[in-house]
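Lab meeting tomorrow. Look over both lines:
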Amino acid sequence: MSIFRVFLAIAVTGMMLDNTMDSFLVLKVTNPYKKAVDSAQQRSTCKYNTSQPMWEEEFSFLIDTNDVPGQLHITLWDANYVLSDSAMSSPVVVELGELEVEGGYDRRQLNFLESGVIDVSVRIRTPTCGVRVGVDLHDKEIQSVGSRRQKVAAGIQALLGMKERPPKVPTISVLCSGGGARAAIGTSGAVRALQEAGLLDCCMYIAALSGSAWYLSVLYSLKGGPDVDNCTQYLRDRCAHMGPVINVMKIQDHLSDVLKKYFDGHPVSLVNIWGEMIGKVFGRDLARQDESLLSDQQSVAGSCEVPYPIYTAVYVREGQSTDLFAEWIEFTPFEFGIRDYKLFSKMDDIASSHVLGMVTTRTKEFKLSFMQGLWGSAFASSIERWAQTMFSDDQSLAARMVKAVLEATDLDDWRPFAAVLPNYMKGMSTLPTKARRIQGNLKEIFAQYCHPGHKQKSSSGDTEFDGEPSEADSQAKVQKRDEETSFSEEATRKRLDTTRGGAGKHGPSVRFSKDDYLTVVDAGVDFNLPFPPLLRPERCTDIFLVFDYTWRQSQDEDPFKELFKAKEWADEHGWKFPNIPQDLFNPVRQENYYIIGDEADPSCPVVVFFPLCNVSRREETIPGQDESFAEVDPFRHVYSTFNFEYKREDFDHLHELCRFNTSLAVEDIKAVIAKRLA
């Protein structure tokens, strides 16, 4: 058996209809590949309010050579957004086997109300898998990290006052938690402090989740490129205007783009409306305003000037708790994917339909505002999580009634604000063959390739697949960092291709290959720190700078709950993570930050953990910083996750507090780096 991808170029001219209407064509092939049945029927663009529609478009279908080439059926339809669409003609039949591949146009008379001429041209290729299989990093990331490493070496040299650049440098990654606007503001203060201290130039990666992803995506999309001070002022101004935009009564103002997406055939959810709201808040001064895309950040991410950005979400199943199933998805300007499944796709294909790793219906990439809504929805939790958050200690009659209803129904795992993404992994039980140019009669080509024992190879041309793709070298060990003395791309690739541990607990799923869409939510519903993409052995992080803005009832509540979850996740994957002492947090003697490492294992990463707190603000000072905000309580109601509008005074209080707390740790972070270099 072989699978071919057939490209059909359709040009329709000379059609004259009795009345003006909204018309489109439906094309259907009669022998699609069995795992691409849903893409066997496709529709053209709609020509609105015209009696003389014309089309010139290309369509692609997956065809199985176990059968004859089959037929192409073309039908004219009238679009109706209130009632059902209606067919305006009988199908016109084109015998695919009679078409010459690369043979130019084959002129056919159509019977669309006895008018119109169709030109059909066919091309055929064995398809190339657009989904990347494996755990290696994207080539562009490897190049960027290789270039960035030299800048990091220069940054560490300046930071530590070294006479010469260090021959090898540790990989330092910044992680920022979720927490709505609170997390975005806190991240702005922390990043500013890192830049002022010269530490930002020493960092290789920065990963964000939920609210901190709002900040990072704005910073990397600003006109003129990333600018920390400008981003802070911009965020300060926009947070003061969030209230009028994030307003249930204003939902109608955001519906037009959502309805357009719906009429174009895409599924929509409340996240679409939420994303439009976020876009109205943060999109004003971005390089492309509210038309910005995540892939627009490729030039920034590909340079060596700033840490490489990573955004996160989790793939969940409807009706199933995240305690049982939650797979982390990482998003970069170049690609997105699930490391545990070893499957990644191009970022600009995120909105397109896939079968067997190939795009069957190409759709423009989702706007950055939609992605911001996906990453940072404060409402993405299940109804059960809502109740736990809002009524945890509430014993009122209303709270007891809500809990009773959830216990008596199946609504506890319903997620009204979940986003849906086309399933880029659909049908990925086998991989397609390597692309080749083929010419001749389509029927003869099918006869040539339709024979027993014809095996398929991967896009590399040397690996046969029968069933789910296997993981190569899943237990490979990390090579010693002391051997890494080169900044070349080859050395960087060699370093990044090693692995520190094994596969995840879930492994490849049978179900994901059948679903048309993936349900994706804010990663904070699993745990609120974006460790998974940076715990990947391929990225080899040595030092984590972790900023946790998770909401707590008070400063005296244990701040390590999310960090313990990250530790548990790392242990499940067999990846190194320092042990966290159970008695590390003392409510009586709290710290602004905590350094957690493993003295017995130098290869274990070090975690510098910054909880949201105000411990030393009253006793200590930092030269050049305003001390008028010393009394701020970061857990008063104005900083709630569900508050989206901040007075400038409240913004400044939180921003300066997080900037201050980060500044206090600079000398200790320098000591951690120096120890790694020793």
Q: What stands out?
A: The chain is about 25% helix and 20% strand.
